[in-house]
Amino acid sequence: MSTNSNPCRIIALFNQAGGVAKSTLTMNLGYHLAQLTHRVLLVDIDPQASLTKFMGLIPKELDSTIADAIIEELPLPIHEDIHGMDLAPANRVLSGAEMQLVNAPLRDFRLKEALEPLLSEYDFILIDCPPSLGLLSFVSLVAATHVLVPIETHIKAFEGTDELLQTLNSVKKANKKLQIAGFVPTRYAKSNSADVRTLGAIQEQLSSWGQIFPPIPRATAFVDASEEREPLAVYASKHPAVPLLEKIAESLVSL
After folding, report:
1. Does 55 fall in a domain?
2. What value does the mean pLDDT take over residues 112-132?
3. Which spans are transmembrane here (predicted)?
């Protein structure tokens, strides 16, 4: 049980680009926060449901998902104590839910309202956003206290950052308290000169917006761990990325 007296921090992991390791980071950072004795809820709001799969659930077999909470305004369905974390899962139904949200009253606040009753039960709620600038990402950012941006150390991924920052600025009109928790460079290969240059550009151009965390290396161990439905620290505790993830989790505690 957490001894932390801080209010619940709701952190949206968001980038409109796909393949930047959002779901992997959500699961692994949640695990390390739980290891630090914090109460953690993971929220999967991506119709691809990668996080739900990584946590060992089978999306198509789920009777109830986050879609029921944001469309029907039912209580958030929560699966408890998976590697010390709780999970509100997703599946493909969310794709249709996003269409239904378009005409829903007070649509921007649907996720915020679904999370409201749970704020006293958790220290951290981590939201795995879809790789798009659509409504599901928007309602996630409106619900969040902080946004953490995974950004691939690849020049094309970095070139999309201006659009991402513009989105965050527009969300702040609906959520004035939203803060940037930082940027996590991902899929980094220090042997690749292009990755090194891109990391330098990220550090130079984004540090005024928020903290730049140490880069997370490109590693097949992440894929292997997710296939085994385990956080990296459980699957390969000696992997060099584990202390990097621990360090990011510790930084989130001080938000």
Report:
1. yes
2. 97
3. none
Question: Residue 241's domain is classified under what CATH number?
Answer: 3.40.50.300
In order of 50, 52, 108, 127, 128, the CA distances from 26 in angstroms are 11, 11, 22, 7, 6
Q: What does the block give as tokens for 130?
A: 């879809």
Number of domains in the chain: 1
Do the Cβ atoms of 222 and 241 come closer than 8 Å? Answer: yes
What value does the CA radius of gyration of the chain take, rounded to a whole number of Å? 17
**Distance from C-alpha of 99 to C-alpha of 161, rounded to nearest angstrom:** 26
Question: Which residues, including other chains, have CB under 8 Å from residue 151's CB and lie 6 or more apart?
Answer: 15, 20, 157, 158, 161, 183, 184, 185, 186, 202, 206
Provide the whole-model pTM: 0.96
Which token pair is 125? 């709620």
**Cβ within 8 Å of residue 20, ≥6 positions away:** 131, 150, 151, 152, 157, 186, 187
**Arithmetic mean of pLDDT, 111-140:** 95
Asked if residues 227 and 53 have their Cβ atoms less than 8 Å apart, the reply is no
What is the domain extent for residue 167?
9-254
Give the pLDDT confidence of 39-92 residue by residue, as tens digits.
Answer: 999 999 999 999 999 999 999 999 999 999 999 999 999 999 999 999 999 999
Locus of tokens 């879609």:
67
Q: For residues 233 and 223, what is the distance between their CA atoms, to the nearest angstrom?
A: 13
Per the document, the length of the chain is 255
